[in-house]
Automatic annotation (TrEMBL), chain A:
The keyword Transmembrane applies. It comes from Nitrosococcus halophilus (strain Nc4). This is VIT family protein. The chain crosses the membrane at residues 23-44, 50-74, 106-132, 144-162, 169-191. Keywords: Membrane, Transmembrane, Transmembrane helix.
From TrEMBL, chain B:
It comes from Nitrosococcus halophilus (strain Nc4). This is DUF211 domain-containing protein. It comes from the Bacteria. It holds the Pfam family DUF211.
């Protein structure tokens, strides 16, 4: 059994696919909305250097990643140990060297990587126009405007992904999450009006 | 030398992997293995199954390791068929 097959087997016996998928969407959504909030906040603030925006966004992305990694690992490791202990009691044997024992050790790490990685990589995608601008790449819109557009696009895609999972119409779920992003953006714009 | 041709095991296993995956993993230990599993009892977290394995030369140690890897526990060997071969 190669590493990929082994991981698939461990995910299967621990029934962790759904948990990883849920964490990917919920924390990815958090990351996308946080970046949208930051970039829109800077957008309504006059004359902020792109490098300052980039540093603030990277700091937030790293904080989101660390929070996602640690919170998921701590909670999942405790849950998996409890489940393993209950199974060991039912089987009247030590399962430390079995696939279930391995899953109890590895699956929390995997889920933590998904939980911490999804907001981080989504944030990197959203702020990629700011980087491109720093390297002199000419963008069709300004760097902040492009980042905001990417954030809307990713939030829409997360909705589409949710639609695919739930088996409902993908466009409807995509538009629903996009509406949440638009409302968030409008609330931030109200700050400027106030 | 003798060869184990058939073996019937009483095994306790968790619900996951299911019996299909369990049988496949045992069968994959050797190309000639033929596996039949009967579920005898289902509890809250475990299943008691009877594994009937047929092959030309069953490697019991290897089967035991595969079952242990899937968190199964062999409770007893209920039947065996062994064919003896005269040394030449």
């Amino acid at each position: 059994m190669n590493l990929f097959q082994e991981l698939r087997f461990l995910l299967d016996i621990s029934r962790s696919h759904r948990i990883a998928r849920r964490y990917f969407v919920t924390n990815g959504f958090d990351g996308a909305l946080a970046m949208l909030g930051l970039t829109m906040g800077f957008y309504i603030t006059d004359a902020v250097a792109v490098s300052t925006v980039l540093n603030a966004c990277m700091g937030t992305a790293i904080a989101l990643m660390m929070s996602g990694l640690l919170s998921a690992y701590i909670s999942e490791a405790a849950e998996r140990q409890k489940e393993l202990h209950e199974l060991e009691q039912a089987m009247v044997t030590n399962l430390a060297h079995s696939a279930h024992g391995k899953a109890a050790r590895l699956i929390p790490l995997l889920i933590a990587l998904v939980n911490g990685g999804s907001p981080f990589f989504i944030a990197l995608l959203i702020i990629s126009p700011l980087w491109l601008n720093q390297y002199g790449v000419v963008l069709p819109l300004g760097p902040l405007e492009t980042s905001i557009a990417v954030a809307f696009g990713i939030i829409f895609l997360l909705g589409v992904f949710l639609g695919k999972i739930s088996g409902t119409f993908w466009l409807w779920t995509g538009l629903r999450t996009l509406a949440i992003a638009v409302i968030t953006g409008l609330l931030i714009l109200l700050l400027q009006a106030g | 030398m003798s060869r184990v041709k058939r073996i019937v095991l009483d095994v306790l296993k968790p619900h996951h992997p299911n019996v299909l995956e369990f049988a496949r993993t045992i069968a994959e230990q050797d190309s000639g293995y033929r596996v039949n599993i009967t579920v005898e009892a289902v509890d809250e977290k475990t299943e008691t199954i009877t594994v009937t394995l047929e092959g030309t030369d069953i490697q019991f140690e290897q089967i035991g390791e595969a079952i242990a890897h899937m968190s199964g526990s062999i409770h007893s060997i209920d039947e065996v068929t062994v064919v003896g071969e005269s040394q030449s």
